[in-house]
Design a protein that fits this description.
It contains 1 helix and 13 strands. With about 180 residues, the protein is an all-beta fold. The protein folds into 2 domains: about 90 residues, RimM (Elongation Factor Tu (Ef-tu), domain 3, Beta Barrel), CATH 2.40.30; about 70 residues, PRC-barrel domain (SH3 type barrels). The strands form 2 sheets. Strands 11-12-7-8-9-10-13 form a 7-stranded mixed beta sheet, with no helix packed on it. Strands 1-2-5-4-3-6 form a 6-stranded antiparallel β-barrel. It is elongated. The termini are far apart.
Length: about 180
């Protein structure tokens, strides 16, 4: 079973054990009626059935699980990662989640390995892939001008980068204020 992390439980919501969570799905309602795995910070895993989901603000939701019946049980899930079977997402074969890129090796058009993906973050225009090795950090816009191919079988991303995109970690440029 191919599991995908879709959110994190931040606390409880009321005395019946509902939990608050940050969810990274555009339509979080798709998990209603599904079984999810909650991986607690201590590594313990629990399979739970989602019976109700209510939107709060932004990506925050309230989730009620069939197996959690009181606030004490809900509190035990705080900090847990919510994971679902990738099939639930109904993604097309060429679609992927940004978290799928984490840990992939990044190779330039000159066949130079520049590091591994350590983070992906969203800007107003597009996503940025953060690539690091021991000494450098490269920020690459996730658009076809720069990301030429993603090979999930080889766990590699092929990119075209411009001069100045790759910076030495901890270096201060002449434009930085001290």
């Amino acid at each position: 079973m191919d599991l995908v992390t879709i959110g994190k439980i931040t606390g409880t919501h009321h005395l019946k054990g509902a939990v608050k969570a940050n969810i990274s799905l555009s339509e979080p309602e798709i998990i209603i009626g599904e079984r999810v795995m909650v991986e607690k910070p201590n590594g313990e895993k629990k399979i739970l059935s989602v019976v109700k989901l209510s939107n709060l603000v932004g990506d925050k939701v309230v989730i009620e699980f069939e197996e959690i019946t009181n606030k004490t049980e809900g509190n035990l899930l705080a900090g847990g990662l919510i994971k679902i079977n990738r099939d639930i997402l109904g993604m097309a074969e060429d679609e992927y989640l940004l978290e799928d890129l984490l840990g992939m090796t990044v190779i330039t058009s000159e066949n130079e390995k520049i590091g591994k993906v350590v983070d992906v973050f969203d800007t107003a225009a597009h996503d940025i892939i953060v690539v690091e090795d021991e000494t450098t950090e490269t920020l690459i816009p996730n658009i076809e001008n720069f990301v030429k191919d993603i090979d999930f079988d080889k766990n590699e991303i092929y990119v075209e980068i411009l001069e100045g995109m790759r910076e030495t970690k901890g270096a201060v440029s002449e434009n930085d204020e001290i």
